[in-house]
Design brief:
It contains 13 helices and 15 strands. The chain is an alpha/beta fold and about 400 residues long. It has 2 domains: about 280 residues, Rossmann fold, CATH 3.40.50; about 80 residues, Alpha-Beta Plaits (2-Layer Sandwich). The strands form 4 sheets. Strands 1, 2, 3, 4, 7, 8, 9, 10 and 11 form a 9-stranded mixed β-sheet that branches. A two-stranded antiparallel ribbon has the order 5-6. The two termini are about 30 Å apart. Bound molecules: iron/sulfur cluster (2 copies).
Length: about 400
């Protein structure tokens, strides 16, 4: 397993001068841009999961993207910024996302927003989960990829950061199919790791200036974290990010499977962290999680340990639950649900601002992928713990 260094630099705000200082320092610490040569075309795979203003802390902040583009073009490269958000993967839909995320101001003669919406077939025989798949074709047209993610909680995977960001290489409308193909959390986490190993980005950067806690990755609350991180590999980087928000390998499935595959560390103590900003100073001890439903397994294969693991898993079991009075009846959860577990029904308790309809979930069909929670535009779909899990959750903090 490689011990690729992670640069951790304090960054207090999205003011351009502060971002410039912090990002430049972070990249210098690991000689991050050494691979960039004049004439190269660099693809920045940002997190543009949904159309949202930069200050909502859902998507990669445009000021950070702006500074990275400046550094790349100064080295003689051209840049394409892209992602496949949740929803349609069409020019009109994605261009609307670019607009909401404030990306058009980044365009120049050397910087473009992706306009190639082709879809390609990929084969990856060495993959654990994803031996064949479809992906966004624009990634074939660049010489190197930089993953630029945002540090947020994630209902299914525990955390959305460098590794999870690469799921945006799958076209939006195809993503639900992958949830159906790999409903088990571990298999799905392996999909994320497979994507990182297939595309092998040359560099990963994390926007952890303002992150998201609670009902992430789109409906939680903004939380100031105050850091920019970078590394040439994603697993140690995600381990450091997880540690900053109070998580470890057992809370983040992608870290767990990466370690099992010999790709990532078991603990943050194994990661070499560069920079003056110490991990202890960067930690946010009361950072609110989205869910810890898969967070504890007892090691060893004894029957007693298996029973303990099952009991804890049941205690922590979660499900999506709609807050009727916040639901506007937009049907996005219904249209996104890969298991077709949602029917829209009329309800007198629905938000007065909406259509009067709310989603009803068929629990026997639900695979707990939390896509409905991820893409609800008003945060009306919540992650619900059972009462025992809730109590254990509170005790743990
Ligand atoms: S109801 Fe929500 S969590 Fe369940 S399968 Fe559908 S989208 Fe996934
Ligand atoms: S729960 Fe959210 S996504 Fe679903 S209909 Fe209500 S507002 Fe729309």
């Amino acid at each position: 397993m490689s011990n690729t260094p992670v640069a951790l630099v304090k960054c207090d705000s999205y003011e351009y001068e502060e971002v410039k200082r912090a990002l430049d320092e972070s990249l210098d610490l690991i000689d991050a841009l050494d691979f960039v040569k004049p004439g190269m075309k660099i693809g920045i795979k940002a997190n543009l999961v949904t159309g949202s203003a930069a200050d909502k802390a859902i998507t990669t902040h445009p000021v950070l993207l702006k500074r990275l583009c400046e550094l790349l073009t100064k080295k003689g490269a051209s840049v394409v910024i892209g992602d496949s958000p949740g929803g349609l993967y069409t020019p009109a839909f994605v261009q609307n996302i670019y607009k909401s995320c404030g990306l058009y101001e980044l365009e120049s003669s050397s910087v473009a927003l992706n306009s190639d919406f082709s879809i390609k077939d990929g084969k990856f025989p060495e993959a654990s989960s994803l031996k064949s798949f479809t992906y966004t074709g624009w990634l074939d047209d660049v010489d190197a990829i930089i993953g630029f993610s945002k540090l947020k909680t994630h209902a299914m995977m525990g955390m959305s950061c460098a590794v999870k960001n690469m799921f945006g290489c799958i076209p939006g409308t195809t993503k639900p199919e992958y949830h159906m193909r790999f409903p088990d959390e571990k298999a799905f986490a392996n999909v994320m790791v497979d994507l990182n190993e297939f595309f092998k980005p040359a560099l990963y950067i994390v926007d952890a200036i303002d992150g998201m806690e609670g009902n992430g990755p789109t409906a939680g609350e903004k939380r100031h974290i105050g850091a920019v991180l970078s590394s040439k590999r994603p697993y140690g980087l995600d381990m450091v990010c997880a540690s900053m928000i109070g998580m470890g390998i057992s809370d983040v499935q992608t870290l767990l499977v990466a370690n099992e595959r010999g790709l990532g560390p078991k603990d943050v103590s194994e990661v070499s962290i560069l920079g003056n900003y110490g991990l202890d100073d960067a930690r946010i001890p009361d950072f609110k999680r989205a869910t810890i439903h898969q967070s504890i397994t007892f090691e060893g294969g004894s029957a007693f340990n298996r029973i303990k693991s099952i009991a804890v898993k049941l205690a922590y079991s979660t499900k999506p639950l709609v807050k009727k009075d916040e639901c506007i009846g937009c049907k996005k959860c219904h249209d996104t649900c890969p298991a077709k577990a949602i029917t829209m029904v009329s309800s007198s308790g629905a938000s007065k601002k909406g259509t009067g309809n709310i989603p009803q979930i068929n629990r026997s069909k639900c695979i707990k992928c939390f896509c409905c929670q991820e893409f609800c535009p008003v945060g009306a779909m919540k992650v619900h713990y059972n009462p025992v899990g809730n109590m254990l959750n509170k005790m743990q903090r």
